Amino acid sequence: MSRNESQRKASFSPTQRKACLVLVGCVAAVIISFVASWILPGVLFGSAAGDYDPEAYPVDTTLSAVLTETSDAGADYINAAVFAGDDNVVALTASSSITIDRYVGRDGLAVGDLISDACVYFEDDASSYTIPQAIAKMKPRRVIVMLGANNVDGNTTLDAFTQDYRQALNAIKNAYSCCDIIVSSIPPVAEESDNAAATQTIIDQFNQALAQLCESDGYHFLNAAEALKTGSGFAESAYLDADGTLSTAGVNAYLNYVRTHAYDGEDRRPDTDDIPRRASQAAQAEATPTPTATPQMHNVRYGVQSGSGTLTYGDQSGVSSLNFQVADGETIRVTAVPADGFVFDRWSDGQTSATRVEQVTGDIEVSAIFSDARVALTLDKGDTTITLGESFTINASVTLGGAAADNSLVQWAVNDELQTTAGSFTFTPDQAGTYTIKAGVEINTGRAEATMTLTVNAPATTVNMTVPRSMPAGSTATLYVNVENRNGDTSWACDQLPDWKPTGDSVQFTPPQPGNYTVRATNNGVTAEYTISVTAAATPTPSPSPSPSGEDD
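Above: the chain sequence. Below: its structure as tokens.
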């Protein structure tokens, strides 16, 4: 075989060459995808820990609801409590200090499920109970609620989380009002966990909101997360198991914090009799069940007291009143819905959550109260121009639902810097320029704003010269200028002396030859001009020559 024939047989066909190019392109695409997926995000967006600011959403520890450090309350404090919540509450049983009789909840429990999820069982009882129902049977002196770990995936807004948590706490309080309710912060996550920065930021936001909820609603807040964190703001690695729940070391650290940040209020329980023992599952039902007694029925009435809005219950919506009967112990959910331009204010019994979740134990009759939020704000002046040194006063008018309202709560800002709160505003600018004046007011969560532009001009510049009308050639005169509202130095010029360009309020002028000299002084673009007549210098009179010595007259 010749060498040329060997080369022809070793080369690729056109189809083979195309296939190779496609293969190379695919490999390159895979490499680029790998770089984009694994390398570029770290370069462009930083590491997970780098995106997290542990100081962004601090718990306000000055709130009276936040429990402060105390002496160790001991085991009796724990034994008089029931822990209610999710995976981390279940993890508390890893400590010998917590038994099944001291907790209610389940793995995976979300905040919104607490009032409806029947996840609690008792010995010799075939029924299952919601957490509020179970707490009423267990009669604890205090309930420590630790919920929220299953709501931090980014799918729950802060408002929804706060509303659901408030409903859960209200349900517990309504079911058994004789206990102290303590809200425990959501534990932190490990720094190396997936989406650690985003998740921990949400946890911090939620914990901050829970402390404020406890302050406003009369509960107590246990800031236990601070005992589980490192300086980075993430969890101490030894305190969490691989699944992210509290480890035995984490449980011990948590319970130590509970005992040393105790709320030991008055024991308000009327009795502690007939408390059933907890069970991990419901008891088997009897083959022939005992006939159930006819449940006691209660009348419930909901209405709209004032303002504009409707009620929603089950499949009923847009109604102004609800009137029906409910069996004793049944849980119902009624929501007050404001009309456009209105906001929910409160219920006639003082509850401030628009949605009421109630375990009915007696007759109910309450009404929803709505407030008008149709706010409008107008200013008595539009865009205006003034001169520096002048003051500018502007007045605001406020209406609520078309009727005149108090304007004393109007806030004024100049170039986005808050100035004052009042019905009118006087502004005296200290320099020329353009200023944006904004007025804003909020009433019943309704907000209105108005904006105008104030242009401030600098005062006009005037230039006045003091120069001689005439002068001899070769002589020197001092020229003066008086400038009002100056801007920098005054510059001088003379058409007949192009190299003469002094500056200042007084200058020396020496015309070399007779003629008319036009002198100009300029400041801030304003020029004064004067023509000086320059005469010939006087010819000196010659002195007489002396007579020669000894010459006769």
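The two ends are 148 Å apart (CA to CA).
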